[in-house]
Amino acid sequence: MKCSKCDKEAITFIRYNGTWLCREHFMNFVEKRVKKEVRKQPFPRGVIAVALSGGKDSIVATYLMHKITEKDASREVHAITVDEGIDGYRDKTIKIAEKFCNEYGIPHHIISFKEEYGFTLDDISKVRRELAECTYCGVFRRQCINKVAESIGAKAIAMGHNLDDVAQTILMNFVRSDVERMARMAPHRKVQPGLIPRILPLRSIPEKEATLYAYLMGFEISEDECPYAVRAMRGIYRDFIMDLEKNHPGSRHSILKSFLELEDCIRSKYPPAQLKACGICGQPTSEQVCMACQLREKIMERIK
Ligand code: SF4
Ligand SMILES: [Zn+2]
Ligand SMILES: [Zn+2]
To answer: Residue 265: which CATH number?
Structure first.
């Protein structure tokens, strides 16, 4: 098949807009939409931190943020990697992240659960009861990233979430009737004291396209999946959305579009809570003690 935009051989078919694209036009197609997203979202001057796990999405997000800001003297991209302590899995992706940052000259910061909280996610897994590993992981990781971002003076944190992730989150919140959580989804337009706003440069890029982009760029990527991922509720939504997209191409974009139409209403109904410093760790929270400190206390009691 020929590319729909030039005479070269196509390497992929974009089902939701019916075009065949060659390597060059596919790469342009991805880069153009990421630039457009970045323009639409808050993109402050100064240090932009990217949460780099070492997985394909975060590698693509870090690379594209680096590429977009390369000639921009007013912005500098740093990468933050969290070592949750997942034996046999995270060690590998951290090495990939390190190598990647070295290659592109991106300052890289690594923070670990063990050093921050005194235990690894593997330790949590042994003593956890009702809550899944992902719940602990999400709370601690978010806080770790925020702490490092704050310490390097970052003005925004770019996350690697792609269109599939965002569509899953929107749908999940709808099904659970958790509109308030939907109102707190990134990109964050309001700057809260102590909480670095998050942005989503890959928000309109489907997962398959991020994977193909990473492959075409020759990035080293780990195919491994986190051993705790199987317990994640998200899997149900992933399967459902993949099925929906297969039968109705463009569904993921429509889910995002519907959210964007409602965004202002939702955010004005649920404005961000007034944040204060956690009485224990000083990180921003709407309660007296932040969720990370509450969970940490429970785990410490069980580990003793
Ligand atoms: S799958 Fe769950 S436990 Fe594993 S890294 Fe992701 S959030 Fe953490
Ligand atoms: Zn072409
Ligand atoms: Zn705290």
So the answer is: 3.40.50.620
